[in-house]
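Reviewers asked in the last cycle whether our approach scales beyond single polypeptides. To address this, we selected a multi-component target totalling 522 residues and predicted its structure end to end. The input consisted of the following lines:
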Amino acid sequence: MTSIDDNLSRQSVLAVYFRCLKGVVWREGLRFFQQRGRLIAALVRPLVWLLIFAAGFRATLGLSIIPPYETYVLYDVYIVPGLVGMIQMFNGMQSSLSLVYDREMGSMKVLMTSPLPRWYLLTCKLLAGCFVSLLQVYTFLLVAYLFGIELPLLGYLAVLPVLLVTGLMLGAVGMLLSTFVKQLENFAGVMNFVIFPAFFLSSALYPLWKMKESSELLYWLCTFNPFTYAVEFLRFSLYLKFSLLATGWTFFCLALFLSAAIWAYDPKRGLGGVGRG
Amino acid sequence: MDAGLEVSNLSYNYGSKKALDDITFSALSGKFTALLGPNGAGKTTLYHLLTRIMKLQAGHIRIFGNDLKKSPLSAMASMGIVFQQQTLDLDLTIRQNLKYFAALHGLPADDLEDKITEGLKSLDIAERGEEKVRSLNGGHRRRAEIARALLHNPRILLLDEPTVGLDVPSRKAIVDYVHMLCREQQLTVLWATHLVDEVMQEDNLIILHQGKVRAQGNVSTLSEEHNCETVDDLFRKLVMSGEKA
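The resulting structure, written as structure tokens, was:
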């Protein structure tokens, strides 16, 4: 028999890495399209916020002109970037839920025993989840557009690379969480303790100055929330503007959470779900 | 004959409990080596160490000369693995599972479909290729896992109790097929089991009990040394009495 070592030496290393990424993305895509309810759920959630919640608040909540906006904006326009972040955060958690499932079902072992480096395999897994979130986000933006919420046309393009960064960052948070969760049943609790506080303690639904008016403590918590910076990074890019603070914090959090997730999946500590022999 | 797999002074503890206690053995290249041990002997722990699912605490593992710690990628690339726990994605078809595995190993797409068909045919499950794993019985799932483990032409195949839960004909078919691979394709095999009837006279045998290697060598030679007529007698004698070889 010929060994894969020989194959590896013959093939371009880059091609091998690319095939691996393609395969992981392909599998994630297959699973996503097989779970038809997942796309619908991913769309219904932000659309309820946009079309019902925002409509109700539109009349009561006044927003002053704040960057990146150059004029007054309606509330439903304001919350679009936050809802995009929400889609990505839920998707990140859903991907990490599937990691726990994969670990329980054993298919995580197949990924972890690939000859490619573990950090790369986990990054592929995150990227795959991120691509799925891109589909959800652009479908949401299209539906929002059809309901009259228009953003700068170039903003739809400019936000694409930012979506990759924010999607990876939020996916890495989910991956890190999944290393602490031993059983699938425990994951719902973790989601409640992470998703809702992260979403409400951010600038997704209201600008931080509004929060400051109500509570200094809550405002202070919001300024430490990575999700706040992810949302602002998305908001600025959708309006073709740049925020050093939001960009810097998002990249910093991505590096931090990704390293922590890779560290947590290191065989030195074992894979949480692995049983004794 | 060269060793395909060398394990030396391997120990592993779960807290204060010793799962593996300074074990040393080798699996000869191109041979079928049965790792026989009762439940709880440490077989699965050993497989998790061999496949880098868990980190080595003490000792060394070499796969065709590649140290698992120093050159893990080369070592892993030459390894085909069938875990005790079923590891197929239930919502994908057999072919999709195999394609995903091929991608994880960076295999080119050129003749992949043909290779998959060939692999499934040799395990008599080609007609099931487009069926979702969820709809398959245990025997077919196991065969699919073996076909997957062989897809990248590994030099060594590690199987951890691959026949657990299967009926007698399915067990026999899988045991015979893997023995055939050793004979005809010189594949190195380490087969963990607690079922003595899966071990043949020409096989090499390692008996693992309570985390220690109790005996190792050719089945016929060991039987002769211990005055035992069958593998079952040998296993009982060494494991039940705690006698060391």
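Residues 35-268 of chain A form one domain. We regard this as preliminary and will revisit it once experimental data from Aim 1 are available.
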